[in-house]
Design a protein that fits this description.
Helix 1 runs antiparallel to helix 2. The protein is built from two helices and two strands; from the N terminus they run H-E-E-H. 39% of the residues lie in helices and 8% in strands.
């Protein structure tokens, strides 16, 4: 008998979307990152709110390239 406790797991289902829908969602997200610092994956969270770093970072750069490929 083993006494190993495994952490709870949740399986999320995936839903396919059309490339045009993906492009719209991604375009909206990237547009909102210009005004909302909390959407940046590398934002610094402080007691006064999130602070956007001076560079956009690799993640947003790759998302921008992905958006260009969907157009």
């Amino acid at each position: 008998m083993t006494t190993t406790a495994f952490p709870p797991t949740v399986q999320h289902t995936s839903t396919r979307i059309l490339p045009s829908s993906a492009q719209t969602l991604l375009s909206t997200f990237l547009h909102n990152t210009t005004t909302d610092a909390s959407l940046h994956p590398n934002a610094l969270l402080t007691e006064n709110g999130p602070i956007t770093p001076s560079s956009t970072g690799l993640v947003l750069h790759n998302l921008t390239r992905l958006e260009a490929g969907l157009k």
